[in-house]
Batch of 3 targets.
Target 1
Amino acid sequence: MHILILAAFWIQDDGPPDPHSSPYILDFVKVLTSPPFNHSVTCVIPSTQRSWIGKAHLLPPSSHSFKGQQTKPAVNEQITDHLKPSYYDPNTETVHDTIPVPGHSRGTDQYWVLVPGTPATCVQLGLFHHQTLFPHSPPCSAQDFDLVVSGPNHGRNTTAAFALSSGTLGGALEASVCGVRSIALSFAFFTRDEGQELIREASEVGTRVINRLHTDWPQPSQSGEPFTGYVPDLYSINVPLMSGVSGMPIRWTWMLDNKWRSGSLYKSLPVTQNHETAGTKTEDPDEASVHGRSTAPSFKWAPSFADIWKTVEASPEGNDGLVIRTGCTSVTPLRANFEGLWGKEPFTGDLKL
């Protein structure tokens, strides 16, 4: 079957190619653009890792400061409302500040745009400012894109606890809200053996699934006959990064509704460690106690996934988290909204106070 995607728009949340945080990008794009797929691809991705950021857009912090406040903004708070992209050449693996021009050794059809923003921001710029980012390419509006592919994410995006925080899912949701079909693609690794053969096999499986979903995307009947099915806004694909995955089943799944229960995603640092590692000039603890003030606590990103694994192990069959643990690829159809409970008991009529 010949599947034509005029322009597949690709984003992800792990940033540009990096052996640790973003090891899948180059191989996936090579598979997507090579025979037998031969898709046309536009790449707009964050310039740095933006995992766990959901469908956020980064806005500058308030300029208001409280009386007596001396703490300078942290690095991740130094955000402005101006974005200046850079340009990545996947052939030389180099980054440039200027847009490639026709005839330059960096071909205008090959470069990727690196945006100092989130996956959702990349979607906005890629869909609505394509001509600005790629001035030497033919004009292209948001309606000219057949599909937005967000990924492949470095790690699984299964179960609600992960998916609701995912920048990869967030990018796909942003595209859906913009009226463009989208697919979030994630590779679930089980060991740190992430060789190119495994990545290529997972990329080929992911691309074949993307092709089928795009071709068979449900849509209401054009003949006027009643349509009784469901039309997804987006799909979430999770491919296990393991040898032989191409021979394993590809299963429709539902997203496991699980919670973080036993602890925080952060751990608090001891006061002494806080004092030594804060990175800014802090008040001496002894001096602070003399003046009747305590030292400010600090926290470190240190998520524990034990809760999540337990909920998956105890869950019924058919959900995304359990399916990928069997070595099968998971495909979850989704709608880009918060499903409401209005009209279902007891949420009917008026709320009585």
Note: Residues 1-7, 273-283, 287-292 have pLDDT under 50 and may be disordered.
Target 2
Amino acid sequence: MALSIVASGNLLGILIARILSGLVTQYTAWRNIYWLALGLQYAILLLMWTFMPDYPRTNSGMNYFKALWSMVLMCKKHAVVVQAGLISFTTSASFTSFWTTLTFLLAGPPYNYSTLIIGLFALLGILAICMSPLYARLFLDRLVPTMSVYIGLFIDLVCTSIGAYSGTHTVAGPIIQALGLDAGMQITQVANRSSIYAVEPKGRNRVNTVFMVMTFLGQISGTSAGNEIYARHGWIASGSLSVALLGFAVLVNSVRGPYEKGWYGWGGGWSFMKRNMNSADGMTVETPSGLAKVDAAKVHEADAEKAQRTSGGNTEDKQ
């Protein structure tokens, strides 16, 4: 649940920016949004400098260039990082494509909404993202990341299809898409982060960097491609791009099973329930020295032996 709350910040920032831009553009000059962005960036810098703790380095012998190169090696070493990154790329592209082209759709006929009303559409997405603790309780805390990703992508595909092919006729289509796309995006993002959380216990920042680079590349690509396709072919064509991207994400998620250690296949089992409920990916346990991969069956055996010893000790006390 904690991971789902933290991961909400990225998507919330994008959506809150839409509301602010709509308000500023409606009542002042549009260039003022850039001055607002500049002020917010400096405010964030000041807050980080003041309150962010100074954590000790976990890799003291690694300089900046070695850290960059190690990220490339991570992609070669950990298939799950590449898989999660590709899924994040495609879902992020569909996300930004929708929110960018939505402005063009609602500003033109048959809607002709003002910039303020268009900006307020982001409240729908914020509502969906703020339900992250509910998603964690229902899916993320119980299911392995692979299954949670399937659920998120299914929600994305259904709602994006509805919005793409009905948006030019009724505003209900974009409303459904805004709610479903943001909910599915949040579920998918948190599940992907859970799957890569423990692959490098001493390099989590670098793993997260690789993941976020793929995410931001997807956002840039979706914005650019969505704009271009909308300008040439309209709303349905840009929505079809999002449907295709999400379909590709489903294929990428199906290449590897939740317990597969290689680049493809479903070795290790087909169970979609977490074998270890106390871990992010369902397979990793916390130890005093960090994170360690363990066999789930051995964990269950150890728990059973501990319970048996405890019950045996209680019997002797009674005697």
Note: Residues 25 and 31 are 8 Å apart (CA to CA).
Target 3
Amino acid sequence: MVTLLLPLLLSLATSSIKGSSLPKPSFGPSMSMNLSDLYSSITNTTSLGDGGSSGIDPRFGVDFQLGGIPLRPVACLMNAVNAMTNLALQVFSGNVRPIIARLRDYSDVEIRSETSTLSPGLTPIRYILWGIWSFALFMIQHDAFQTMRLALGFNGVTVGYIRVEKPDQQSLSLAGRTDGSSAESLNIRSDVALPATAPSETLENITIASNSTSLSLTNTTTPSNAGNLRVFINPIGQRLTIGEFFIPILASLDYVARFPSTSPVAGFIVHPANSDTWIEFRDYHGQPRREAPFFEYHLVTRTLGALADHMANLEGWREAMIVMQVNGVSVGDGWIRKG
């Protein structure tokens, strides 16, 4: 069994930089996107009051302007997953200052949000999350992995912006600093950390164990792993296209973001519209635990980010079985499947 250590997804930062201070690349004409494909069929789950489906508020809309500069597909989608993972751990109905999302291993792509003049300083988290989900799906469906700018609207009023771009050299140099000069970075870019999650929502480490032939859960816990999430991923079954792999992960992040992070998971299946691939999560072997540790939504959120990171490192997208352990106790399992 091969054991890999996945760094915590902490590349998402808030920024007080005003959009007008950023370089403005040229973009093409504005065009609207039909957001019906952002809906997913949800089964065996707690009702969200939408008749068994998960989708965005129908009053929300997105207009795209394409920049035409090619971007690496996996970098676009990994940064989208990272940003949505971090946002999903926040309060869904809350607000956030402008964000910059850029993973160190995929630093050739950067996601930025900007506020509108109607809501200076803050943007609802759900709008940014839906905007990221929108551009990722647009890129996949249209094979349009390129720079772009999104205007986020609600009831016909612009409520914020998202830009997907190549980072400037100053951003890259700061991201690559290893001298611990965080104060200097803050002075230059005015970046501050996201609000800290509550201790009960924070996990020290995430460990991924991958086995290509079997999924063994024996003798996997050591004292150093106590209190940590361990994710066992067994990549078996059919190979998937990049879209077949990422669409259900992004849809699932949108879904779990709606629940408080420490709420117990009600087993669910997310089957995105116009997708042959789906994801299921449930209590381990379908048996809810009666004592701690419990299967909570923040575990699913972090596991979805871990699944994307792990498969990207394997340089291949596959169906997979997933088991989640906390304190050496198996609390949940799941699958990503096609068909």
Note: The radius of gyration is 19 Å.
